[in-house]
Amino acid sequence: MVRIIRFDDAGVPRYGRATDDGLVQRLHAAPWQGGAASGASVALEGLRLLAPCEPSKVVCVGRNYAAHAKELGNEIPAEPLLFLKPPSSVVGPGAAIVLPALSSDVQHEAELAVVIGTRCRDLPAAEVPAHVAGLTCLNDVTARDIQRREKHLTRSKSFDTFCPIGPWIVEGFSDAARSVRCRVDGELRQDGTTGDLIVGLAALVSFVSRVMTLEPGDVISTGTPAGVGSMAAGQRVEVEIEGIGILENPVVAEGPR
Q1: Measured on CA atoms in the order 168, 247, 73, 98, is the torsion positive or negative?
Q2: Predicted pLDDT at 40
């Protein structure tokens, strides 16, 4: 399994390609920017990992699992329900999810995400795999009380730190069913499978590409299974996706401004 990582290399953010031998080959740029090997390899263990990509946009889909739509009292949409999270919401593994003072109910949403590898528009589903860099874990953190009050998604999904991504990108494309789990302080909260997606990976990427041009490094998150719930300061949340890894983040309260 080849993994694309982004890490702190003596204060410099750097991309790398990690292999199963535990070594990371430094790259002078992201693979989707033609990044070639640069310098000696380093050990993966002990590196401070950053968000594995720097998306120009994060495209998410709501209600793409029937059980999740039901738990929130929503109908299943006739077409994928899209919304955007800003790049400023993206953080990496180990970074804190900050609970904003403006919300009293911030919830986790474990999701499988697709990272785009080449610029594309109007893709047929059959051509999607050729344009995908790989797959990763994403936590679509949501201020649920704001979402319920405002009846739309922009503010509730867009606070800084509300889009943890990582810990890495597993290269390649596969629409095989994978378990999607979320744990908070070790307690299993979400336990689903991408086999239950209403709109599958290739069809979803194709749909999004008919709306907007997708740039290398952009992220499309595919929806969350049932079991979403609140997080509190001092807790740790884990998003685990079979065959990819575990994205872990601490939760903290917002400090004084």
Answers
A1: negative
A2: 83
